[in-house]
């Protein structure tokens, strides 16, 4: 679980703790993290193999989160109603998420989901999308994993391949922080190095 600074009351957590209230009743953070990793890995693997990339809009994105985390959290697939920050990055206010999310996915649809772009242009557009979704951060928890799954599906749909499992996660986080500060150059570089031709469409 990521460590967020949360505005407002800690209604998502068990009293006196930072452990998220969950459907399994787990109150030990290490145990919850372990079970969460197992469930999300399994769900991500299934989604990468079986999830169709059709009717893709902001609701599709919310549904991805619900599929990944629905066995653990009642609020899976729901937009957060609190403001959060992490490592100095202030994500979009909760009140703006639905509007901005719908606008971003409409734009993505107009861009034909980045299909038909040469590799350099694709990497640049993907970096901008990665940054926009990261700043949106629509969920209380699980934003990065949902975003990486979504981008994996999108990249494959566009005729390329990407593996976040093989990337330097610390470097990617640094790149995302720099992007939040207005410099997307490192994020473009990191993602460009991760993109490959898809020889198994």
Tell me the layout of helices and strands:
Blueprint: E1 5-6, H1 29-50, H2 58-69, E2 84-86, E3 89-90, H3 97-110, H4 119-136, H5 143-157, E4 160-161, H6 169-180, H7 185-194, E5 196-197
Helix pairs in contact: 1-2, 1-5, 2-5, 3-4, 4-5, 4-7, 6-7
Provide an overview of this structure:
There is one protein chain. The chain is mainly alpha-helical. It has one domain (5-197): Fic-like fold. The chain is 51% helix and 5% strand. It has seven helices and five strands; from the N terminus they run βααββαααβααβ. The chain has helices spanning 29-50, 58-69, 97-110, 119-136, 143-157, 169-180, 185-194; strands at residues 5-6, 84-86, 89-90, 160-161, 196-197. The strands form two sheets. A three-stranded antiparallel β-sheet has the order 1-2-3, with no helix packed on it. Strands 4-5 form a two-stranded antiparallel sheet. Strand 2 and strand 3 (89-90) form a beta hairpin. The chain starts with a strand and ends with a strand. The mean pLDDT is 93.
């Amino acid at each position: 679980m990521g460590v967020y600074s949360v505005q407002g009351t800690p209604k998502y957590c068990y009293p006196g703790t930072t452990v998220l209230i969950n459907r399994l009743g787990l109150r030990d953070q290490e145990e919850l993290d372990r079970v969460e990793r197992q469930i999300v890995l399994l769900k991500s693997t299934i989604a990468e193999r079986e999830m169709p990339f059709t009717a893709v809009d902001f609701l599709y994105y919310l549904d991805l989160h619900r599929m990944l985390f629905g066995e653990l959290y009642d609020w899976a697939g729901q937009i957060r109603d609190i403001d959060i920050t992490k490592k100095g990055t202030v994500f979009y206010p909760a009140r703006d998420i639905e509007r901005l999310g719908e606008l971003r996915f409409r734009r993505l649809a107009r861009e034909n989901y980045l299909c038909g772009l040469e590799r350099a242009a694709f990497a640049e557009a993907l970096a901008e999308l990665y940054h926009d979704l990261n700043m949106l951060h629509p969920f209380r928890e699980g934003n990065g994993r949902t975003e990486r799954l979504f981008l994996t599906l999108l990249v494959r749909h566009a005729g390329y391949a990407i593996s976040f499992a093989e990337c330097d996660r610390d470097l990617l986080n640094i790149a995302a922080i720099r992007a939040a500060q207005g410099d997307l150059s490192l994020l473009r570089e990191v993602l460009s190095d991760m993109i490959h031709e898809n020889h198994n469409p």
